[in-house]
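$ ./design --mode recover --in tokens.txt
reading tokens...
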């Protein structure tokens, strides 16, 4: 098919020609329910005219200026709106185009703050296994998905990783709450292993995203992690690229835990996919530390602070607000979770159904008692999503759940505009697809 270098080399792709709400259509006239919002980002749905008009209007007015020469009205307005909802005091926003870039900027910002504070020896960033922070070499250094990083590890400076809070497969063999949050205590042990003056930041997703599948940490985890960062002088970087802009039923997932980090990276849902746009949110007091020590933040990007991106983001924010879609993500998300649990609880290959808001995942197991995963070569979750695709429902299949190689899960994360009837249809197709894939695997 032509000259496109495709993401998957072993399949052919239908041509997508139209989107409207939760639906997509291909050139053959087939209709799909987008029940994952791509890789979890189409929050407001497809084909929203307000966003299209806003970005076209901005492109007609001023499509591009270099961010070292100009600001734009749309950027200023958007930043004011965002400052009012982000759980970060006195926030300032650096804009880029992808989640990976927002994370890269966050890592560089944290390092520069520490150096500006006179803490040049701090050169380590603690991250978690079972995390995904991006596809670039810098973000792979903190990503905790072995299958994504091993091939490229000679090309980046690896960073220390600790276990994720993942109660279904607790690595400490413990159960909450008697575990006393061993997963949070692991952060302190790792800080001390390197020496308290060596670690500059801790980075994690508030609710684990694609690598583990919608794993919500136990109560107290985030408070303890934040307290440790504070005690040992680390910046707390929270990766809200997937969870931001309403996905978990709050504007930002950290609101569930009542913790204010030092840096928040966001992307995906910021524009709901209409144009690439991402955000590194930081505190003014830390910018001031850099300004006094170094003058400027050492970072750049040809497409940084893009006015068309800001126009799409502003229109997306307004749409979420005016249609009360964050509350809808919470309420319809609760319905989705309930329907998934009811429909899948008796299927022996379903280990766990978990999630928050409109971010749900199903983890598959070959044996429910031992929690043994399917052989990795089977790509069980991929098979389930292919069968659902054939029936017109899009789901986000992932693997490597258990140890970065073995284990399967699949994310169900539709746009917040999905109706209960559409949720019922998605759940019924998913149930059939799982049964068929399980039948084939036996
Ligand atoms: N961080 C998280 C939590 C993500 O889910 C992703 C993408 O899936 C990224 C970072 C990287 O974002 P992008 O693919 O836009 O570079």
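writing sequence...
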């Amino acid at each position: 098919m032509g000259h496109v270098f495709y993401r998957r080399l072993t399949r052919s792709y239908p041509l997508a020609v139209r989107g409207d709400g939760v639906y997509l259509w291909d050139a053959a006239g087939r209709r799909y329910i987008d029940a994952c919002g791509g890789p979890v980002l189409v929050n407001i749905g497809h084909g929203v005219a307000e966003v299209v008009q806003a970005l076209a209007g901005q492109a007609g007015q001023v499509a591009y200026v270099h961010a070292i020469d100009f600001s734009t009205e749309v950027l200023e307005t958007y930043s004011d709106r965002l400052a009012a909802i982000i759980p970060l005091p006195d926030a300032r926003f650096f804009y880029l185009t992808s989640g990976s870039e927002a994370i890269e900027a966050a890592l560089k910002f944290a390092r520069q703050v520490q150096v500006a504070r006179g803490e040049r020896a701090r050169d380590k960033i603690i991250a978690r296994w079972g995390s995904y922070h991006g596809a670039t070499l810098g973000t792979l250094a903190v990503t905790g998905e072995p299958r994504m990083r091993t091939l490229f590890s000679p090309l980046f400076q690896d960073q220390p990783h600790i276990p994720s809070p993942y109660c279904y497969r607790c690595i400490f063999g413990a159960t909450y709450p008697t575990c006393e949050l061993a997963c949070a205590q692991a952060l302190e042990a790792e800080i001390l292993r390197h020496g308290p003056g060596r670690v500059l930041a801790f980075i994690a997703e508030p609710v684990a995203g694609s690598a583990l599948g919608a794993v919500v940490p136990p109560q107290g985890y985030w408070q303890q992690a934040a307290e440790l960062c504070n005690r040992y002088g680390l910046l707390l970087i929270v990766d809200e690229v997937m969870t931001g802009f309403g996905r978990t039923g709050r504007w930002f997932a950290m609101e569930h835990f009542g913790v204010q980090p030092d840096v928040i990276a966001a992307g995906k849902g910021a524009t709901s996919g209409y144009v690439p746009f991402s955000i590194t949110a930081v505190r003014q007091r830390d910018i001031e530390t850099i300004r006094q020590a170094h003058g400027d933040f050492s970072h750049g990007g040809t497409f940084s602070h893009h006015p068309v991106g800001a126009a799409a983001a502003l229109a997306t924010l307004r749409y979420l607000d005016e249609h009360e879609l964050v509350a809808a993500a919470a309420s319809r998300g609760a319905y989705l979770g309930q329907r998934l649990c009811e429909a899948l609880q008796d299927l022996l290959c379903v280990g766990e159904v978990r999630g928050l808001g409109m971010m749900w995942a199903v983890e598959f197991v070959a044996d429910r008692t031992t929690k043994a995963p399917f052989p990795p070569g089977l790509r069980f979750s991929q098979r389930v999503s292919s069968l659902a695709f054939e029936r017109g429902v899009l789901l986000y299949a992932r693997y490597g759940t258990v140890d970065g190689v073995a284990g399967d899960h699949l994310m169900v994360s539709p746009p917040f505009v999905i109706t209960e009837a559409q949720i019922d249809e998605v759940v019924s197709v998913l149930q059939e697809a799982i049964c068929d894939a399980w039948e084939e695997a036996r």
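exit 0
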